[in-house]
Amino acid sequence: MRFLLFFLLIFSFFCSAQNINQIDSKGMKQGLWKKTYDNGNIRYKGNFIDDKADGIFYYYYNSGELKLEKEFFHSGSAAATYVYYKNGNLKASGLYVNEQKDSTWNYYNRDSVIILQEIYSSGKLDGTVKTFHDEGSIYEIKTYKENVLSGIWKQFFLNGQLKLEGSYVDGKRHGLQKYFFPNGVLYSSGIYNEGNKYGEWEYFNNEGIRDTIINYNE
To answer: Of 127, 83, 86, 76, whose CA–CA distance to 103 is shortest?
Structure first.
């Protein structure tokens, strides 16, 4: 009887092993796939249908902790992705489309507080990028168009007060730019022209009184 039970267990394990990492007659991955590190710990596992990832894939650190999850849809062309620290807290989340970052991506510190938010289109930064202070309040807002800085640029003090207001055009500072004191009073104001200070710049003390004017040549 013990021999029979042992045989059934071995047979069951053998059959199960035979159904992992299968490639069909057309060379396509089918069913459950698993890969391991050199130390024997699992690297990833997930299911394939006709060589396309299907459902949730799990990826692990070499030391065994869950590293990320990818939930595939649209015949494997898109994947909702969640990246984790070794302690299990969320590190990043976003969408891959055709293996490129797309739409909104969020990044978190080890205390699960958001520190960065990016918007992608086909793997390129395209839209508003927000950076946050460690406790979660907004620090900086920049605008990208196809990976190039282009549009509004703002920075904020820890108290939420505006620190800087300007803009970029084709990757260079361009147009009116203002700096402020933490109390909201204007510190300086002037024009950037294709990355260089241009014309008359005004500087003020923290009571709002102008005390310096500097003229910049082209």
So the answer is: 127
Q: How far apart are CA 190 and CA 183, in angstroms?
A: 20
Residue 107 lies in a domain: no
Whole-model pTM: value is 0.84
The DSSP-derived string for 58-77 is EEE-TTSSEEEEEEEETTTT
pLDDT 10s digits, 107-149: 999 999 999 999 999 999 999 999 999 888 999 999 999 999 9
Closest CA to 162 of 135, 130, 139, 132: 139
d(CA 16, CA 145): 50
Q: Please tell me the distance from the alpha carbon of residue 4 to that of residue 12, in angstroms, as a whole number.
A: 12
Q: Report yes or no on 180 lying in a domain.
A: no
Q: Is residue 73 a part of any domain in this protein?
A: yes
Query: Position 2: which residue type?
Result: R
In a domain, 31, yes or no: yes
